[in-house]
What we know:
The protein has helices at residues 12-20, 102-105, and strands at 32-34, 40-46, 59-65, 71-78, 83-87, 99-100, 112-113, 119-122, 124-128, 138-143, 155-164, 168-176, 184-192, 195-204, 210-215, 223-227. The protein has two helices and 16 strands. The protein is 6% helix and 43% strand. The relative contact order is 0.27. By secondary structure, it is mainly beta. Strands 3, 4, 6, 7, 8, 9, 10, 11, 12, 13, 14, 15 and 16 form a 13-stranded mixed β-sheet that branches. Strands 1-2-5 form a three-stranded antiparallel β-sheet, with no helix packed on it. The longest helix is centred in the first third of the chain and has 9 residues, at 12-20.
Amino acid sequence: MNIKKLKLLLPATVLSLSFLAGSCSDDNAPGIETNKDGTISVIEGKIFNELDESVEIKTVGGCLWDDWDNIYVVSMAPFENGGFRMELPPEVTDESYLELLYPVFAEIPEIKFSDTKVKYRELEIFANRGSEIEMGAYDVYLQTVDPALSKVPDKGAYCIFTYVDRDVTITGKVTSESELDPLAVSEIDLSLKKGWNAVYSEFDYTSKPARTKSSTKAPSGLKWWVDID
Length: 229
C-alpha cells in the first residue's frame, strides 16, 4: 500500500496540499544530503522490508514521467548491501517534463503563491532487475507504513522528492469535507528552492477534525520500502 496515493480518502484540496508540501530544511530525514542552499544532492538508505530470493534488484533509479508516459531518467545507482545511494543533479535540463503547479490550486483562494509560474515534477523511484528503468520495476517509497499492508492506516506519513524550477512560497489553510470526517483540515506553509526539495506530509484521521499537515520537518518513523506486490 502506497499511502501517498490513497486518493479515495482525501478531498481534492487536501490531496493536492498533501502531495506538494515540502522545503529545504535542517530537519531532513536520515539518508538525505543537502547543498549549501538546502536543496537535496543525495538520497540514500537501506530497504527496510525483507526481500526473498525471488526479488532480484540490480539498480535503483529515479525518473520523471510526463503525461504521455515518456521517461526522463534523473539518476541511477547500484543496489548494494540492501541499499542504495543516488545523487541528484542540480537541474532538470529538459523542461518539457515539468508542468505548472498553480493550476492545481487556481480555484482554492485560501492558497497563496509567491510565483504562479513555478513548474514542478515529482521524482518516481524504482528498483530494477537490470541496469535501466524498466517496465515491471518495483516502486520504492519513503514512508511510515509497509506497502504490503492491506488495511488503510489511520495515521501515517510519507516523503516525496519534488523538483521546482524557481524559488516559491505557498501558504494556506483549507477546511473541507472528506469521507472520514465532515470537517477535514489541511495546513500548508512551505518555501521551495529551485532544485530538489524534500516533501514531508502527515495525516491523522483519528483526530477531530481529521488533519493533514505539510511541513519542512521530517516526521519520525520514515523507512525505505520496496513494493513487491
